[in-house]
User: Fold these one by one.
Assistant:
Number 1:
Amino acid sequence: MEVMNNIFWILIFPGFLFTVAVGLVVSWVVRKVTALVQWRVGPPVLQPLYDILKLTGKEILIPQQANRTVFIFAPIVGMAGVLLLSTMLWHITIWQSQYVGDVIVAIYLMVLPSLALILGSSASASPHAALGTSREMKLVMSYELPLVLALIVVIIKSGGELSLAALASQAPIASISGFLAFFVSLLCIQAKLGFVPFDIAESETEIASGVLIEYSGVLLAIWKIMQAMMLVALPLFLVMVFLGGFGTTGASFAGGIGKYLLVVVLIILIKNTNPRVRIDQAMKFFWVFCGLALAIAVVLAMLGNTYDISWL
Amino acid sequence: MSWKLKFLKKSVWVFHVNTGACNNCDIEVVDLLTPKFDVERFGIKLVGSPRHADALLVTGVVTKQALPRLIEVYRQTPKPCVVFAIGACACGTGIFQRGYHVAGPVDKVIKEEDPNAIIAYVPGCPPKPEAMISGVVKALSVL
């Protein structure tokens, strides 16, 4: 029974089917809002689904010099990571379950997709993909530090809680340090999703979609599904950690969906109002500016905790 | 084969190959993405890599220099895929018919590589964006 439940969770309800369905709808929302911002009509609702179905019907080409095993398994590993993350987050949201140290597990699972992308593209033996890989690596190195610092701010505000269910019951955004941390981690999420201004690794116009350049057919479809699932999991993570989560009652659950949409819309607007930055600009931005802002936030949060001032 | 083509029609990702065009057709191709024509309505998207492409938009007469590159790009495109010959030069070499540098019209070159290739033609010098949309729609409706 326990095993059946777990399989149901992972494959159907908060897991694969549900996340993919919601993810495809949200990725349509991203494309539609982008089109509206640019004064265009935009694609129909089922367009992301058509893209995936079309890609599954295409031929898979693998470069001669590529490392076949890594090339084929990298997208699957990445998708498995996002799938686990999404299942875990929704499970905590709906059933209020707890694991040991689950924020740290979430951080690890969030790195998996980028790591898989780095592995897969470096296995493809293409010079464009190599450029994309090096950019993706530098990007991961630059945004992981601010993201972890932002989570440290939240953990300090909560008095040392590591469980996501406990973190989701408070809303640190209502304080100065919490707001700084939220803003910086929103930008980190932007970079994790590979959206403009941080789509440096995938930049279509200069390095021809860099990390994904050699992928075709089903393997490309798996990457696209993974990116759609990240659109579900990562904003949800922000909502849980910073905005007070979904709550347990019906009204607060609806409010939670509102918060999720708010985060998604913020991400889309940042995506549409910024040009792509260079990799050195991105590193400087994340390390110097975001790092400094978060160092201040950590100090403020500790002061607030010591002297019991909740708005710091 | 049929369901593959069915979904291919709904979402055509396009890779643009210039095999020696005078840039007029290229400008008209880029026009398709602007708000006025907005081909994303039909699921058409310009992609950066031939591996992601379902359709190759070939502009320009195939010069001898561009010939091996065009064939390589065609071989790198996962099948099923459609080749669109855009403009008078690509359809039938146009005014360059007897040029010393011409390897042949796009259809002949591609057919030599793959006799079963699906090729569609949009004539014009340059074809209007409306003509291209209509050509793509007509070609996809008979697939």
Number 2:
Amino acid sequence: MITTLLIIHGLLAVALLGAVTHQALSVWWPARAGARGFGASFRAVRGAAYTNAIVALYTVTAVVGGVLLYPTYRLTVRVLLNQLRLNAANGVFEFKEHLVAIGLGLLPAYWYYWRQPLAAEHAGVRRALTAILALIVWWSFLVGHVLNNIRGFGL
Amino acid sequence: MSVGRVLPLFSIAFAPLYAAAMYFNIAMFVYYPQANELHWHDRPDLAGPAMYWYGWIAYAALGGAIVLGLASFLPARFVDRVALRGAWIAPLASILFILYVIREWFIH
């Protein structure tokens, strides 16, 4: 059951990672008009179209990870990390748990400033909030992946 | 003033409240995963680790909701001005504070 949830959590995280990366690049490094190729196409999305999906994916991913998986992590994985004296591994996960919580609190502001029609005077705060959210999602994804490699499946 | 307009103030309040809750360990409730029990206070007699994370989030969410309610009485122009910068500065500052607080994990 835990392995199934872990895979679902991972798949949701991949979808979230893609959506938030598209959006972040579209505001920080927008594609030039008429530009072609994979990189330009990746950045040439309408960022606002991703907002609701990002809010929903972030919330569901956080609930699956934080409510359904986290207790098992505390009882099995963290104990192992302590026994192996992998303090940095414990630390990066601690940071992930705090980042995810702050990201949850960030969502109302993020959603508000990405409402359509987009207000031009909110472009700066939109960029900043999207960058913070993207940082949180990337950190959480990478840390979750690395820690899963340490402990593996079959909890 | 519409609820939507004051939403950023929830985020502005949430992040530092969460950081404070974590730093001072003020949790609304405590979860004991091994016993699968929730308690309002620490229960050292219960087996296994205590999880405060949910309680910190609940505390910050409650504080954010209170700020949201109070902010709806403030002038719209003031709310807009505070929210425009605070919406990203408060979470970013809170993240840096948390990183400083947990630095021990990476030093030792």
